[in-house]
Fold this sequence. Notes:
The protein is of the alpha+beta class.
Amino acid sequence: MTSTEFILPSDLSLHGGSAKALGEAARKFAEKHREVFDVVLYGSTVIGKPLPNDVDIMILTRGRLHPAEGRSIVLEFKAELKGILPGKRLDIRTIAIEDLFDPNNLASLGVVIEGFSLTRGKPLAELMNGEAYTLFRFTLRGMERKDRVRFQYALRGRDGKGGILKELDALQLGAWVVLVPIGNTYRFKEFLDLWGVGYEAFTLLKGADLFYRL
């Protein structure tokens, strides 16, 4: 397995050395266990929540494991991470690749869209030639006119080219629709909460852009 630069999507309250150690631990674990296809970080850590309550990790296996075997590798990997993530609550689970496509598995969508491959050092979306985003649809209903103007400045800057959109590399698709890279989801959520703006949020996986001449 080739080595790759490890860049964590958020700092997990760790120094860079510990982040690198997390990636190395995942790669060594996958090399040691033939049944392990990948080790994936997902959940609140990946969407940029500061100081997340726990660290969610999914071990992807090449086939369905006996429950006892699954528990065994979870406990082994958790023990290896105790020194790397001291004091962190680890939620580590296993899932067979084939079960990612089971509609009854509620974790599948989050793993695929939010997932960050610890063995490869890249988001799963990128490894599938795609990009992961959160789409926010919000409303300024009930907000006074002066506050709407201030909100617009905060959102887009006074010149319409800055603000939180530029800071988070987000894209405004419509009057009150914004597309945010998955790793900046929580920061944009905090921005809307600060302004008391009501919203809906949907995660999505964007593939390659296709252009058709009509």
